[in-house]
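Supplementary Data S3. Sequence and structure tokens for construct A.
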Amino acid sequence: MQLNKILKSLVIALPMLTLAACSSTTDSTTNDGVESSAQQTVSDTTTNGNTGSNVIVGSDTDVSIDSVENLTVEEVKKQVMDELRKRHVVYFGFDQQAVTAEYGELLQDHANFLIDNPAVKVLVEGHADERGTPGYNIALGERRANAVVKYLNNLGVSSSQISTVSYGEEKPVDTSHTNAAFTQNRRAVLVY
């Protein structure tokens, strides 16, 4: 939800910044495609009667946004990227590499950001738990990373923005030998 708030803040801030910066000229510039996507959705905004705050009517919720006018495009982009870094792990079942539906929204948020910012690149790390041979776990980690890449590609992200690496069982989050630890270690991580 926090990511949605930041993305929706971006929708309000960028057109205002663009209008203010280009008020004396008719040429418009884009910053890695961020402004163009924000301008497409600005028609969905309405002004709320509460103390001048803006409300964006989205597909899932209405979000109140205050004082985004003071942020630069780069600051907003950094906030969005910081939020994405907090939600960047896709977990897998035992010996599985299919991305489950529960990670659809998370990957959609990453895809939207990558599509709007074609200069940004992401590394998808594939990981496995310690069960299995090292060679098998490297291959499984690679299949998991590739499954996330395929999902992002299907959402419209360019292949040139994504690279993969498999660590297999080499970088566990939890080194204990419990089922809970194994569950946390079976993952793909998106790193910006």
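Construct B, processed identically:
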Amino acid sequence: MSKVSIIIPTLNEATNLGRTLRQLTLLNPPAIEVIVVDGGSQDQTVTVAKQIFESFNQTLNVQVLSSQQPGRSLQMNYGASAATGDILCFLHADTWVPDDLITVINKTLAEPTIACGGFISLMSGSQTTRWGISLHNYLKTYYAGRPHHVNKTSLFSIESKIISLIPAY
């Protein structure tokens, strides 16, 4: 089984980050590491990250890094450079994942025709699920992975399969 590093770029995510990190401490099997890369939060994001990891799981390899510059892509690259896993899984600070996330990732990427995967977000609020937005996200994800051709030259020839992880909450 490949080792999975989870990387979470953050900016002012103190409200959402705690639930996601608590959930990551319950993964079975666990990720090899969880890396939170903060982009200069003005709230308690870094404190929340450190407190959650200290109180819930002493065996999980955790890093809380501060990016020199804000920007999601810069933070993702910084986290990727610090990661030691064979597979990188990038999450938003408010992402809910199933307890068997690592198994799902490994099984999906074990197929030789698959080189990457993605999540389809289910947009829900306090009173309702926003099915229209959720369908839009599904279609964007589906068509983003389809082969594209320019002058009959394939720019993207990897078969795309979607990892659909919609928690039953």
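Residues 146-169 have pLDDT under 50 and may be disordered. The longest helix spans residues 131-144.
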